[in-house]
Amino acid sequence: MYLDTSSKEISVGNYFGKLPIVNIKANSFFKPALWTNFIPLKAANQLRNTMHDQLMLLSTNCTQIQAHNSGHFIWIDEPEMIVTGVRTVLEKIARM
Fold this sequence. Notes:
Blueprint: H1 3-13, E1 21-26, H2 41-55, E2 62-67, H3 74-77, H4 79-95
Helix pairs in contact: 1-2
């Protein structure tokens, strides 16, 4: 998996002040299914949780939205969450 690489890449961004950021988080890296019993899903989810915690520290103006019915592919499982995230950022920018 490339989660550790992604986590390291985001650390390069370091800090964005009060820039509005929306962090959309799925309940699990993959939707639980029969085949997910054969991968280290618990470890992947723990790493994903750490990454999302780090993302929330990138700005003083971070909002996390929970995608309850999605795995990693939120844009496929719940595309309306992406729209909600974009609207949230635009609303925050308008208030700046």
